[in-house]
């Protein structure tokens, strides 16, 4: 469980890692960080986002009670495999990865017996990256997902629930890694596929001069980190391909209503989508 003297270590000071650090510091916790970019460390210290930081410091790992990997999924596996030898006994480990299958199993299979890794995913973000955009307010309207396996204890799950509550997440859910990846294939990855595809459908450079809010809103997430999202897509490609196929079928269904001049049928699709979308209004 989390105590007031729990020392947190953030590995990777990106948007999420930086926002985690900001929220934890705001709640009075000691937060250290490791990042390959010294400028990110310097910025975080200057703006009181972290207490201490380094591009590499064994001492920070040795002192940490709670370690959060803000790295890409495959890098998270490699980092925990490499640096677990420096971790204190019974340190608690988690991540922010957007995919869980294989990643979670790989980490849990290589860890020392006295360490526990329980995966989690903050469903939050912005279309910008880096610690300079850190803002823990993004968690206050977001969902937090815990993805335990049979290897995890109830204490670990309770610890992550407490962690999410401290940061102010709106809702906390528990899914298996498989359920998580199936869900995220639809609500996150498919939406990015749609946004990217829209921006790549028409190369008219003058669109910005006369487009409306609907296009801007729908394509906001098309400003995308190509390295991270390529990795996420391929790690979950079976679920994502299935979601793309289902979406194409639905697009063709709507297209058929137009081809057949089926006014009532088209209106029914609009009514159904409106009803479903209202469930998300806060």
Automatic annotation (TrEMBL):
<keyword id="KW-0560">Oxidoreductase</keyword>
<dbReference type="Pfam" id="PF20463">
    <property type="entry name" value="PDH_C"/>
</dbReference>
<dbReference type="GO" id="GO:0070403">
    <property type="term" value="F:NAD+ binding"/>
</dbReference>
<dbReference type="GO" id="GO:0008977">
    <property type="term" value="F:prephenate dehydrogenase (NAD+) activity"/>
</dbReference>
<dbReference type="Pfam" id="PF02153">
    <property type="entry name" value="PDH_N"/>
</dbReference>
<protein>
    <submittedName>
        <fullName>Prephenate dehydrogenase</fullName>
    </submittedName>
</protein>
<dbReference type="InterPro" id="IPR008927">
    <property type="entry name" value="6-PGluconate_DH-like_C_sf"/>
</dbReference>
<dbReference type="InterPro" id="IPR036291">
    <property type="entry name" value="NAD(P)-bd_dom_sf"/>
</dbReference>
<dbReference type="InterPro" id="IPR050812">
    <property type="entry name" value="Preph/Arog_dehydrog"/>
</dbReference>
<dbReference type="InterPro" id="IPR046825">
    <property type="entry name" value="PDH_C"/>
</dbReference>
<comment type="similarity">
    <text>Belongs to the prephenate/arogenate dehydrogenase family.</text>
</comment>
<comment type="pathway">
    <text>Amino-acid biosynthesis.</text>
</comment>
<dbReference type="InterPro" id="IPR046826">
    <property type="entry name" value="PDH_N"/>
</dbReference>
<dbReference type="InterPro" id="IPR003099">
    <property type="entry name" value="Prephen_DH"/>
</dbReference>
<dbReference type="GO" id="GO:0004665">
    <property type="term" value="F:prephenate dehydrogenase (NADP+) activity"/>
</dbReference>
<dbReference type="GO" id="GO:0006571">
    <property type="term" value="P:tyrosine biosynthetic process"/>
</dbReference>
<feature type="domain" description="Prephenate/arogenate dehydrogenase">
    <location>
        <begin position="6"/>
        <end position="282"/>
    </location>
</feature>
């Amino acid at each position: 469980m989390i105590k007031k003297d729990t020392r947190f270590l953030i590995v990777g000071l990106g948007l999420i890692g930086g926002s985690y650090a900001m929220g934890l510091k705001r709640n009075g916790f000691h937060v250290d960080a490791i990042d390959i970019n010294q400028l990110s460390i310097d910025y975080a210290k200057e703006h009181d986002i972290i207490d201490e930081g380094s591009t590499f410091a064994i001492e920070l790992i040795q002192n940490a009670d709670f370690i959060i990997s803000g790295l890409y999924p495959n890098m998270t596996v490699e980092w925990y495999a490499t640096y677990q030898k420096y971790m204190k006994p019974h340190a608690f480990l988690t991540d922010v990865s957007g995919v869980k299958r294989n990643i979670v199993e790989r980490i849990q299979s290589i860890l020392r017996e006295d360490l526990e890794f329980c995966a989690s995913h903050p469903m939050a973000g912005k279309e910008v990256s880096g610690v300079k955009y850190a803002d823990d307010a993004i968690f206050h309207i977001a969902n937090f997902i815990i993805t335990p396996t049979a290897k995890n204890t109830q204490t670990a799950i309770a610890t992550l629930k407490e962690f999410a509550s401290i940061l102010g997440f709106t809702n906390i859910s528990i899914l298996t890694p498989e359920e998580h990846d199936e869900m995220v294939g639809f609500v996150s990855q498919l939406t990015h596929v749609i946004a990217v595809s829209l921006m790549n459908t028409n190369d008219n450079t003058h669109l910005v001069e006369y487009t409306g809010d609907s296009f801007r809103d729908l394509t906001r997430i098309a400003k995308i980190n190509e390295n991270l999202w390529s990795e996420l897509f391929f790690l979950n490609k079976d679920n994502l391909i299935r979601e793309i196929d289902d979406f194409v079928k639905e697009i063709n269904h709507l297209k058929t209503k137009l081809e057949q001049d089926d006014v009532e049928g088209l209106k029914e699709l609009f009514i159904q989508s409106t009803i479903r979308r209202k469930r998300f209004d806060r």
